[in-house]
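Late entry, evening session. Most of the bench is empty. Finally got around to the prediction I had been postponing all week. Sequence below, unchanged from the version circulated by S.P.
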Amino acid sequence: MTRGFCVLLCLVLAACGGAPRGAASRAPDARPAAAVPVGTVTSPNFADAKPVDGWNGKPPAAYAVHGIDVAKYQTGIDWATARANGVNFAFIKATEGGDRVDEMFHSHWRGAGRAGVARGAYHFFYHCRPAIEQARWFIRHVPKTAGALPPVLDMEWTPFSPTCTIRRTPEEIRRDASIFIKAVAAHYGQRPILYTSIDFFRDNEMWKVQGADFWLRAVAKHPQDLYDGHPWSFWQYTSTGLVPGIAGKVDVNVFAGSAAAWNAWLAARAQ
């Protein structure tokens, strides 16, 4: 996540670079909230609590389409304000394993939809439960909603889990990813998205997984530098973003293409 980035109210996206150290550690003053339809791109009026000095390659601020990912930790979101200030999409945690539903999922899902934020749901993978059970759990709790973003599989190592810290073989990990991806693709009629981090990606050779777009985490360098040029659709660039309308810090992401490419991407995945 771009820890190095403070976008001011008058940001011109194409000309922006990374934020200097010492940039403001609070969200900028909010733009007035107004109804913004899905597909209308609003520019980011964000800050970062822990900015970095700069970026190798193309900085996050050079991308046109920014969004967030949220879970139960984001309890206070004024979605209309967030939308007006640059939140064009949101990936919302829905489920984990085969027996947990995020406490804030339904509230976030409704709020994002009412504000015209393109919304999608993600599942946090539990390494001690069969993949097909987890896919069925996700399908049970995430509605088929017209215009929703593709379903997301979040696969990471879980060293701090109170119940499951195992590290299975790369072959088993990729097999489970494929099982989950195929099941949710068949149900939702969309090509899913696979989220992962650099250590998990490398340890398990996740570039071998087929049938999904990639959402990659890279908080100090461009994904091009860390993932050996692997193609991606979304880049999570900071976990300490400060966004008007959102209480506390939040994960911030960019879409890989232009505003026009974003609308084409949405149209191609419309349900």
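Two things to note before I forget:
The two ends are 29 Å apart (CA to CA).
The helical segments are 79-84, 105-114, 131-141, 170-188, 198-203, 223-226, 259-268.
Will write this up properly tomorrow.
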